[in-house]
Amino acid sequence: MTNEEIIRKMKEDMKMRGFSHHTEDSYLRKAKDVMEYFKGKELEEVTVEELRNYLLKYLREERNLSERSVNYYNSVIRFVYEVTLDKLINKKQLPMYRKRREMKDVLTKEELSTFFNACDNYMYKTIFMMIYGSGLRISEAVNLRVEDIESKKMRIFVRAGKGGKERYTVLPKTSLEMLREYYKKYQPKHPEGYLFLNSEGNPLKVERTRVFFRRYRRKAKIDDKFVVHSLRHSFATDLIERGADILEVKELMGHSNIRSTMEYIHVAKKELSVENPLDAFMKGERRDENTGNIK
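^ that's the sequence the OP posted. Answer follows.
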């Protein structure tokens, strides 16, 4: 199978599995990157040893990509070989980097304030504040439609969730007011009812939104480790700090597994409501006033 045939069949394979447009585009870009690296050689002819060198020597060492990024390329390679080419691949020779538990990057109240004040485009300011106020993923935010905003019930219907999952999340009063003002300013009109449009009147793109986030992040002089998704992390962490039920947070975030939600507990600066076991123990004991020894 030629590389061109692989790309065509990959598109079909992903559509049959219901991949989102964002994931499809991302997988295709990564597959083309791999093909470009092995230029002059069909991907089907590339050996496992060559793939190992590509992942380790080229991506990890030469390009200095993160372990997470290398794993993503590895996932694409596995998809191409095991699904599109229907070939067995020795995964023991192409192992994934072990996932390390990383603390979520969340913004402080001061950083949030500085960032939002740096947003001089009202549409993007509205989007970023909604991501923080409703825990939306960036793709969910840019794909919102007018009908998804349920002002009477103060909730948002998320139709383009991860893995095709649908859910409801909260609609802050601030976001509702901003959306009404945004609608007056821009009067967005699109056949399919998309809320956020570019200058050509087409639905906003995820990457374009990221560009504006980085612009305002620099303007606000905030650490570049923070990305758009950090606003979503901040939403979940702030809810937990305010005493929200973990299962409720799970539903609002659209997590499939409670473990994903539990990670935010490690980040939240939540005061423990239980008494320290040592203090509780000492309350039941008598101590010598002179030596401090337990009697």
